[in-house]
Structure formats: C-alpha cells, structure tokens
Amino acid sequence: MSFTRLKIGSGSPTCTPFYSSSSGTSPLASPPPLFRNRSCLSCQEEYRPENTVATCKQCLEGKNQEIEDLKSSVSTLKERNEELKVKVKELESKVKFLGWSSPVDHRSMDLEDDRYSCSYAPDVVLVASDDGINVVSAHKAILINKSPVFKAMLRNEMEESQTSRIKISEVSYHDLCAFVNYLYTAEVNLVDDQRAQDLLAMGEKYQVKHLKAYCENFLSSKVNASNALKYLTFATKYKAEDLVESSLNVIIENMNKLKLQDEYEELVKKDPHLVIRIYESYHERKLS
Q1: Whole-prediction pTM value?
Q2: Chain CA centroid to CA 74, Å
Q3: What domains are defined for the chain?
Q4: Which of 59, 68, 148, 200 has the most C-beta neighbours closer than 10 Å?
C-alpha cells in the first residue's frame, strides 16, 4: 500500500510516496506496473497483459474469430435445414402425386376403381389445338387418376369416352407433350416464363393441382417491377393466390413508378376491380 510522510520545515509541507511490500517499505520514483509479464494459457508465450485476461492479445483475437466462425456455421446450418425441410415437403408432395405404380404394370384396368394400373399399350390420344394433327398418346388410367376433369370425361357417357380421343383447346403440341409427361413423372422443363404460364393454365383447367403449384412457384420467383402487373392479371385469372401475393408485394414496393406505366393505365380501364385490390393491399400494408 502507499502512504505519505509529512516533513515539517520552513517551507510548505512535502509528501514522499512509499511502497509497502513483504520486504519492507521504501520510497519509489514511480508506482509499480499494474500487470507484470505472464505466460499465456493458450500459446504458453510470455506477454504483457493489458487487462486481467489470461491469454495474449493474438490468442484472444483468434478465439473471438473462432466464435464468430461458429456462429456463422450455425446460421448456415439453420438456413440449410430450412431448405431441406422445403425440399422434403416438395418430394413428399411429388410422391403423393405419383401415388401409385408405373403405367407399365401388368395388372388389369378397371375404370370404376381409382386403385387400378394399366397395360403397356396407350388407349387414348390427346389432340393439340394448334394444328389438330399432332397427337399425344396416353393411358386412360393415368388421366383419370391425375385429373378430376379427365375422370369425368372418361367415366361418363361423353364423346371422349366413346372415341378415346380428347381435344385439348388453346394449347400447343409442345405444351401438351410437357403436360402429359408431367402426369407420368411429376417433372417438367420450364424453358421460359411462357411455358410456365401455359402449363399453369392447363393445371387449373384440368385441376392438376400439383402441376399448377409447381408452375406458380416458378413464376413467383421471376416477378419483378417490369412484369408484376402482367403477372398479377394472369394470376388473378387463374386463381393462383401465391403468385398474386408475390406480384402485389413487388407492385406495392414500386407503386410510384408503376403508376406511370402505360400498362397500369390499361389495367385501370380493363380491370378497375383489380386496381382497387392493389390499393386495398397497399393501404393495409402501410397501416400494418
């Protein structure tokens, strides 16, 4: 401990600092350093500490970096886990859609039983409307199992059930091929936005919900300020609510710019109810 000794003399009093230790008390020119050199617990090297931490500055910085790296890894793993959950959900949906054995199964076919399979040979053709010549062969079993609309056509006394020929209106041959292939495999190559729109429309018309959702997810990822109004109109027509929400989000974020576009003016004239929905969503989100 430090204390002072008062000297009495002719002048003003002066104080002399002392430092007390186990060896006694002695005057010092300056106080001792607060921390002396010590050995780092991590690298065992001697260092002069700036505080009470038992590791040197380099090791401490290294440990802090390790902690940050671990935090980053945990965050990445959480994100990856969420991605895997989405992927698993998609695969479960795909398995449910495919749902039964391959169309090359040899078991007999009974059109009154949803649990049937079908034989090798196709027994129905679908005719594309773009030329009326190119046709796509398929199995009634597949069509009935995957589409309530085809099920009604082929189970009831309709022309399609008698002729085994189904005319598909307003669709190209290539889109029809992609549509039928999806019924068998739950896979499709969406080469562009137009293909996705065409197949979404077919999914809605023939109530193939899995295909519609697949195309809707694809289009939702493509929405931007330049196409949001177009996609909103399209999504509203085909009751694609996820795409509607994606489009509205982009429209609301870019409201001031989009109001100046010619496409917006056309929308006001052609579909004022949709414009009202835009403004309702805009004000709801501004108030929330």
Answers
A1: 0.66
A2: 19
A3: 2-36 (no CATH), 102-196 (3.30.710.10), 223-288 (1.25.40.420)
A4: 200
